[in-house]
């Protein structure tokens, strides 16, 4: 028998509705990470190429500095993401193993854990006991992990995928200032690059703020200011050295 968890979407069972919410949350997290990766690529590469441009170096030097910044930054971001997600994956594996062993060797403890979980979520004792019994009696480890820890067995964290996504997002973001500073002729390359970067940072800041449920305009403005300051500081340092 399907047990409904609220008046909305009455055609969805409690398991289907919870699964839908978690899937949506996962997609939003991936999108948010991609947006921030591209944002980092824009800002860091723009700051470096502005420094080289401020030193009045050749177009070849500009291109070399930009490409080096793009590749090294993308590798750094991808490597950092791999290490971070690997640690999270190790924790997921540990939880999965512990819960599987408990389900196989101590069903009463598994039942009590699920029963208390549903009571804490506000279910009536009768419904909580029925759901817990159904899950434990069917050795439904997937539901235990999804309910208690938001872990989906068929969607465990993939460190390589996360690293690749961060790497690609950074490259895409870095291409904007790199192409502008190398393809636009003097004396417009610095001003046009700065304008293009600021406009794109408004977009990434706005999108990131919306995905994080914070004031979008304020987030976009902060992002633009950070990017503009990065470029101005880079330009000043380059001018002083050059």
From TrEMBL:
Q: What is its main location?
A: membrane
Q: Where in the cell is it found?
A: Endomembrane system
Q: Which UniProt keywords are given for this protein, alphabetically ordered? A: Membrane, Transmembrane, Transmembrane helix
Topology class, membrane: Multi-pass membrane protein
The keyword Transmembrane is annotated on this UniProt entry: yes
Q: Mention any one GO cellular component term assigned to this protein in its UniProt record.
A: endomembrane system
Which Pfam families does this one have?
VIT1
* GO annotation (BP), single: intracellular manganese ion homeostasis
Q: Could you tell me which InterPro entries the record lists for this protein? A: Ccc1_fam
Transmembrane parts of this sequence: 30-55, 61-79, 160-184, 190-209, 221-241
Q: Does Membrane appear among the keywords?
A: yes
- GO MF term set: manganese ion transmembrane transporter activity
What protein name does the entry list?
A: Integral membrane protein
To which species is this protein native? Schleiferilactobacillus perolens DSM 12744
């Amino acid at each position: 028998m399907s047990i409904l968890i609220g008046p909305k979407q009455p055609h969805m069972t409690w398991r289907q509705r919870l699964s839908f919410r978690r899937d949506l949350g996962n997609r939003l997290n991936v999108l948010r990470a991609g947006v921030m990766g591209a944002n980092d690529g824009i800002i860091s590469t723009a700051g470096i190429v502005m420094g080289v441009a401020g030193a009045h170096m050749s177009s070849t030097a500009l291109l070399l500095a930009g490409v080096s910044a793009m590749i090294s930054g993308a590798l750094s971001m991808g490597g950092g993401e791999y290490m971070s997600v690997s640690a999270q994956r190790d924790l997921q594996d540990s939880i999965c193993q512990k819960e599987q062993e408990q389900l196989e060797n101590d069903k009463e403890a598994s039942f009590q854990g699920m029963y208390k979980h549903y009571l804490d979520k506000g279910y009536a004792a009768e419904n909580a006991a029925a759901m817990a019994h159904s899950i434990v009696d069917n050795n439904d480890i997937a539901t235990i992990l999804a309910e208690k820890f938001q872990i989906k067995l068929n969607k465990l964290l993939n460190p390589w995928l996360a690293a690749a996504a961060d790497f690609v997002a950074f490259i895409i973001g870095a291409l904007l200032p790199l192409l502008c500073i190398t393809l636009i002729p003097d004396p417009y390359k610095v001003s046009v690059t700065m304008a293009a970067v600021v406009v794109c940072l408004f977009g990434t800041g706005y999108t990131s703020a919306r995905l994080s449920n914070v004031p979008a305009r304020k987030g976009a403005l902060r992002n633009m200011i950070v990017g503009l300051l990065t470029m101005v500081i880079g330009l000043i340092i380059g001018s002083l050295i050059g």
